[in-house]
Amino acid sequence: QVQLAESGGGLVQAGDSLRLSCAASGRTSSNYAVGWFRQAPGKEREFVLGISANGDRTLYADSVKGRFTISRDNAKNTVYLQMNNLKPEDTAVYYCAARAGLRVGSRRQEYDYWGQGTQVTVSS
Q1: Rg of the chain over CA atoms, in angstroms?
Q2: Which strands make up the sheet holding 78-83, listed edge to edge?
């Protein structure tokens, strides 16, 4: 089992930046890829970006390309989501998810473990 805990959310203004963290505990000795998803009120949970277990591959949703980046520090069992130039449409609960294996995916069903989420609110 892997437990995930997100942190770093908050209320910001359009154009601001935030960095979210996803800390893993439990069976972190296993290789696992990590994805970030978000869910806005009344909408489906959607893939934002993800990173492979060894960090050599990343996937991005078109809506965040050029603004969001993902990185990981395996020594700290932590994955980071750097969000720049935030827009009101980025407002959502952000979840990190992990899947056993090296490969990163973009579908919810590919992920085995989920955090509780952290709220990001961007005001205009």
Answers
A1: 13
A2: 2-7, 18-26, 78-83, 68-73
Q: Which residue has the tokens 């969000």?
A: 83
Q: Do the beta carbons of residue 50 and residue 104 sit within 8 Å?
A: yes
Structure tokens at 63: 């809506």
Distance CA 14, CA 115 (A): 26
Per DSSP bridges, beta strands 58-60 and 118-123 are: unpaired
- Annotate 103-119 with DSSP letters as a single string: ----SGGG--EE---EE
Instruction: Point out the least confidently predicted range of 19-33, 59-73, 76-90.
Output: 19-33
How would you class 105 by CB atoms within 10 Å of its CB: exposed for 0-12, middle for 13-18, buried for 19 or more? Answer: middle
Instruction: Quote the CA–CA distance of 68 and 50 in Å, as a whole number.
Output: 11
In the chain, the percentage of residues whose pLDDT exceeds 70 is 98
> Phi and psi (nearest 5°) for 68?
-110, 145
For the cut 70, the answer to whether the pLDDT of residue 100 exceeds it is: yes
Which H or E element spans position 65? none
